[in-house]
Design brief:
Length: 280
């Protein structure tokens, strides 16, 4: 396995995004800062039959401001006078793929690193009075651009999903669980970047292919985490299916489903002396 090629959603450097403070409502620091390390296993790109194991450091950042918040639910501002509607910032990324190290992409141009960013409208559909259980509908739309050798727009992605958060899961104080599931949709230019094979790169085992836009598969993710006084731990597993995707017939798709997983630990290095009321 090579540590030089893989595709990972940045928001799914997931152990970083899972970071959360204690489960119960009450006085909490306005901000918390720390540093962590994650061990992750991902395919080189969605549909690849090659995967990589690697370690990635990540920042632990929690901010509980009145109009701006940053926690395990992302970065978001208060644009609506409702605690059931939020407008967040959704971020994603992919790391480069060296085609010379990929059996499927031998002789093709390398995949450059990309960044995805856009808004996410999040709607709370149901929650218990004590907020131990919360079901949300998340509607993120992101534009993707390459970030090496010039910023080229490579289309957009849309991934509506249901998200269930459970605090103190199984009666275990401080242990939080998240369950997330939903389809993915991408534009033609986004799918072309990852799955098209131009005629000049076609071979006997890799025929030319023109990827179209539309359905891009579905994902199911489960995560668990706990915040201790001076550190945080978390883990996730994600099942990804490409069955029925608009690009499923691409010769670059070698697997139509896979499992990705990771674990992480973060050390809390400092926190604000200012306390705020928060329920998380």
């Amino acid at each position: 396995m090579s540590l030089q090629r893989r595709q990972i959603p940045l928001a799914a450097l997931l152990v970083a995004a899972l970071a959360a403070s204690q489960a119960s409502a009450g006085d909490k620091p306005l901000w918390e800062l720390g540093i962590g390390m994650s061990a992750l296993s991902f395919p080189d790109y969605r549909g690849s039959d090659e995967s990589s194991l690697y370690a990635i450091p990540f920042p632990y950042v929690v901010y509980r401001g009145t109009f701006l918040k940053a926690d395990r639910n992302g970065i978001r501002g208060t644009f609506f006078d409702s605690d059931r509607i939020e407008l967040n910032v959704s971020v994603g990324a992919s790391l480069p793929v060296n085609s010379s190290d990929s059996r499927a992409r031998q002789g093709m141009p390398d995949l450059q690193p990309t960044v995805e960013i856009g808004p996410s409208l999040d709607l709370n559909l149901w929650r218990t009075d004590d907020r131990r259980y919360r079901l949300d509908l998340r509607l993120p739309v992101r534009t993707a651009v390459t970030v090496k050798g010039g910023m080229d727009n490579i289309g957009w992605v849309f991934s509506p999903r249901l998200n269930l958060d459970i605090l103190d899961v199984g009666g275990l104080a401080g242990w939080n669980m998240g369950l997330l599931a939903g389809p993915m949709v991408g534009s033609k230019s986004n799918h072309e970047y990852f799955y098209s094979v131009a005629p000049q790169y076609a071979t006997a085992d890799r025929p030319a292919f023109d990827a179209g836009g539309g359905y891009a598969g579905s994902q199911f993710l489960m995560s668990v985490s706990k915040r201790y006084p001076r550190y945080w731990v978390g883990a996730f597993a994600r099942w990804d299916s490409l069955k029925g995707a608009a690009f499923i017939d691409s010769p670059l798709v070698r697997r139509d489903s896979y499992v990705a997983a990771g674990v992480g630990i973060a050390w809390i290095l400092g926190e604000s002396s200012t306390r705020v009321e928060a329920a998380e």
